[in-house]
Amino acid sequence: MKLKxxxxxxxxxxxxxxxxxxxxxxxxxxxxxxxxxxxxGKPKSEPGLYFRLPLIQDLTYFPKxxxxxxxxxxxxxxxxxxxxxVDTFARWRIVDPVKFYQTVNxxxxxxxxxxxxxDPAVRDFITSNSLLEAVRNSNRELDTFEVGLEExxxxxxxxxxxxxxxxxxxxxxxxxxxxxxxxxxxVDVKIKRINYVxxxxxxxxxxxxxxxxxxxxxxxxxxxxxAQKILGEKERDxxxxxxxAYRTAQETIGKAEAEATRLFAEVYGIDxxxxxxxxxxxxxxxxxxxxxxxxxxxxxxxxxxxxGGAVSP
Length: 313
Hints:
Elements: H1 2-21, E1 22-25, E2 29-35, E3 38-39, E4 48-51, E5 57-63, E6 67-70, E7 74-77, E8 83-94, H2 97-103, H3 107-127, H4 131-135, H5 150-155, H6 164-180, E9 184-196, H7 198-270, H8 272-287
């Protein structure tokens, strides 16, 4: 029984040691093994199952994938004395975990070293170049979305000498050897945002608003002029159409009256006495009404058809 108990205890102890001796490294990690504070063997950077001496050797895990460094936004004066607000970021990784462990030891301290190296490099390059160099990559013609750069264009040549991409490449090249001693490699450095400081921004916005108002007023003035031109053409065309219609109507009326006169003349020529009677009745209808008063002698010709005489055959 004692032997059996001893074997069980030994088996449990072996399982405990085996469990504590085994460790796993995944594809996003790398491990430095230390024994009493000293590094033992090479760092484990390939994913898989590994073993160590339990209770004697310690494991320190470091990330192997890309890490983000977000710079502190700050005010920088460009070469052409323009105050701008610059915000940068970078991607970095641990390429030598042994140096990293011996120097900074953790990602928090590593980011402090990145702050101390990348931020001054960005400031040096921005202050050594104009605003135009910091915001543009090519010499293409500015479009309406770049109207805030007029001040820089006034004091800078049209052709770029570096451009934004070269400035960022220069920052990275300056930072690489300084960070190599910490086992860190900077993969990329980019400017997240560039903006004018508050005072300059308000002035630029004010100028942009004034320019847009001037353009809007120009469009309104041109629109009013075009509207007056269209109204004038409309009035002219309306008068021309009315005049032509009136002339056509008068010509038609004249032709109709002439034709009517011709027909009346033909008809009345057959019976002149009837014509005289008919025209006299028309005259009565136009000259006399219920309020008319006429004083005529009995032999007046105007009343010849009112004196009881019928129209003679």
